[in-house]
Model the fold of this input.
Amino acid sequence: MQFEITHCDKTSRARTGQLVTSHGMVATPAFMPCASQAVVKACSPHDVADLGIQLLMANAFHLLLQPGPDIIGAAGGLHQFMGWPRPLATDSGGFQVFSLAQPSDISEDGVSILSPLNGSRIDLTAERSIQIQNQLGADIIMAFDECTRYPCEYDYAAGSVERTLDWAQRSQAAHSNEEQALFGIVQGSVYADLRQRSAEETVSIGFDGYAIGGLSVGESRAEMFAALAACVPVLPENKPRHLMGVGTPLDIIQCVQQGVDLFDCVLPTRNARHGSLLTWEGIVKINNAQYREDFGPLSRSCDCPVCARYSRAYLHHLFRLHEAAGWRLLSLHNLRFYAQFMQRLRQAIAAATVPELEAQLSAWTDRDEEKS
Amino acid sequence: MQFEITHCDKTSRARTGQLVTSHGMVATPAFMPCASQAVVKACSPHDVADLGIQLLMANAFHLLLQPGPDIIGAAGGLHQFMGWPRPLATDSGGFQVFSLAQPSDISEDGVSILSPLNGSRIDLTAERSIQIQNQLGADIIMAFDECTRYPCEYDYAAGSVERTLDWAQRSQAAHSNEEQALFGIVQGSVYADLRQRSAEETVSIGFDGYAIGGLSVGESRAEMFAALAACVPVLPENKPRHLMGVGTPLDIIQCVQQGVDLFDCVLPTRNARHGSLLTWEGIVKINNAQYREDFGPLSRSCDCPVCARYSRAYLHHLFRLHEAAGWRLLSLHNLRFYAQFMQRLRQAIAAATVPELEAQLSAWTDRDEEKS
Done:
């Protein structure tokens, strides 16, 4: 994987760039929808490709449970298995395994839990996570890390940073597929000194890119931005930076100004399935009775296939029916909104108009509303 | 609506024809997938149009419950509301309302039940059903009928035939939209004399087409064919004949040889959501563990977008996840199979090779399996 910065903003850390992978190019900043189980929920891979989505993020833990990395390996890798020809990333599974683990399940070696699927024991270590991700064959893979919860006591966070650094080294040693870029992950909860140390030591190990984990887990926006400010400047300029699990368009535009290049989040599809749609005119809660007889499109300024063909009244009807067809159409719209938003954000960086785009979003984005 | 017969088989009652409606032409014999609630479950209308499906069947009772005929009328009719530009039929709602009714809910005037949605009282009469269907604006609409259950005592079936004839006259008197073809419905349970009388009297009222209702409700195949044989020859040659709620490909090919032109059924989509897929090589039960590592398409001889892009292993994975994306892909495949099957059936009638097509289907179709 190659990364080239094409433009740097003069008034913030924002930059545009190009990630070149063996499955194609990604213009950054970029947003990756989650396809944790090798599918963007309610949508088919082909649907998503048609929306201008550049890359997807799958998950080693989910795919370890079902269908298993051996099957995906036998299919020729995850791209082949899911019929997605473009770039892919996988997460290490750390976040999921830690969210299921009790403290006693965690050791210096890794995590040992019972499968939520069938109760069998699952031991996940740095070596095993990388081995799985090598089998999956995504273009970008993640070192195995401990994602701490929020709130997290300082001492635990400090110990966790050391554990994550150890696992980062072991992840790098275990990595055996040169076609895949390996990203190290910065942790440290909301503690600036831990974030800084985590970033410095991860950089000294040396990775193809750097992810920032353990944020967007319940902390305040101020805490999130302080944590970012403590670690992003430590990361090398010439490597891509990925902020995990973020977020709303307003989060993204503000984090891009802190120097972040890549994002992944379930929000566009989860919000869609919950009836919350993003448009340039504001948020549409499609379950609202006001849309029963609204025969206009979700958004008159949207170029997605849903706005071209279906009315708010019809989408309201499908949503009220709890129809899978509705979840898909609403998801496609939100995904297209994100793709279009990221494109406008890249253009705004090049044109030095990011504040104007941010002001436009701030005018209608109620972050809590949007996350609800 | 105009109906023209283009070819008559020499060895059976099978014929090909063309229905011309103001929303386009339908080549018969034709199968209509059910879009009871203005959506083919798990699929979007645009998806279905791309598969070569010529017409859909919606339901006046379901649409009375949600979103209501006033809203669909305000949208400009059902075609507009659901974004389906091709021909549409609606059922009268009789089948649904009778399946919910107690004997005491039924009078000579109609049926009065409590809404399963909100408990409000719903009175459905011939006049009201036609009024709703006029508002919906489908190209083909159905007279209000009583669909008897199976088994049904002779005396009840005889009384029901009279009631249905009365309602047929009232339906015709109430019908106010000349752009919509109104079909009368033949009832009479499994009793040949009742079927014959119902057909004769319905024909003497005079309709644009004739539907045969009250079959495929639990009776044996022999009973179904005997009932058909008692009524189809009574129906005028130059009007289309619709067998309601049928069925499997083998059912369809055999009923076409009895002179039926139109079919509607939930089977292709319901079976798909239950993991049962039709291919020209046989039935694929996608949940079966043998497909975990089967990287070929559902069918090598299928031209559907699913077989072009996704493997059995991936579809198995989505099915095991209970993923809405899987229900859709499997439904699209089965719908395309039906569209292709009906096309081959029309060609076979023209080429006098229906028995060969039937033999091909019989070789792998296990009717009970397929319905399960």
Q: What stands out?
A: The two ends of chain B are 37 Å apart (CA to CA). Chain B has a mean pLDDT of 95. The first strand of chain B starts at residue 2 and ends at 8. Chain B touches chain A through 41 residues (CB under 8 Å).
